[in-house]
Task: structure prediction
Amino acid sequence: MPAYVTFYPLGNADGSLIELANKQLLLIDFGNQGNPDDPEDERCDLAEELRKVLRKADRKSLDVVCFTHLDDDHCQRMGEFFWLRHSAAYQDDDRVEIDELWVPACALTETTLKNDARLVRQEARHRLREGKGIRVFSRAERLKDWMEAEGIDFESRKHLFVDAGKPVPGFDKAGASAAEFFVHSPFAWRQDENTVVDRNGDSIVFQVTFVDGGKESYALFGSDVDYLAITDIVSISRRYGNADRLRWDLMKLFHHCSYKSLGPERGEDETEAAENVRWLFEDQGRKRCTIVSPSWPIPLPGTAEDDDKQPPHRQAANHHRRVVRDKQGDFMVTMEPASGKPKPIRFEIDRYGVGIALAAPSVATASTSTTARQG
Result:
């Protein structure tokens, strides 16, 4: 059975949905920053898009909701949408339940969070105290002292942690899910050294391996890590013989097409990637691979947006376009539609590889690839 990955047009914000072969639904981030009351705001209403999916599936819950880190563009308005266990104020019948919550370890310990980020923290702490419905990404020992100070029994909770370099329990390439999730970040040692929480550097990065008909396809979900974190990911993966864990047919691009995820300098026309980052893009991307940038449109040269310090950066986009061009692949931007208003971009993943599906899951009854398959 095929799997599907859908990327939603949210501006410089993240929200993507993975549907596995066994119909499990995994939401990666909830950056619902659009204004549905503003007719000129072309960002989609992520809450409404997800409700369409759930109505079609006759469900009221998502199997997994992963907050890769707690910046606003990854969790905004989640408190309006989700049924939260830690407070009756977020438990009305119209809300969507989370069967399993995924968070990086720093989401539990950061003390300065506000608004929706704070809600994620409180929900994660509640679930860790209950000992169920949560996965924390880091080495368990990293939080041993904090858990003891919070009155949480360490030994009975450490199975809920997933360290970098390990697969996420509960998924099996040979089982019903036909998928495996391999964690690349956060590194516990980074968090040990940091005196201040670095949300981007300590965010969740993972590879998904999808299997159909005995054939494997690969997706890399890059979160908002910079080139230094990517350099570490590549170095450690190669050192431990895990280079295959960085293969990709489909990449959710790092940090909204920022040059800082490639190298230290933006460059004039194209950002020059650091050595390990270059290897990740040029050597690990497979033929007909696709890079998806969850971002505003790429700025044109000489425009005000082109001078902006914030991503997306034209020079980074030129790097990505060159990479996929050399591989006969595609570079896609969520807020750059082929025509009309931006719509969700849905990929079908089966034994033939990764291809664009005809329609988003809320309106499709069957999906057919319209482009050459990746992989």
The CA atoms of residues 35 and 310 lie 21 Å apart. The two ends are 17 Å apart (CA to CA).
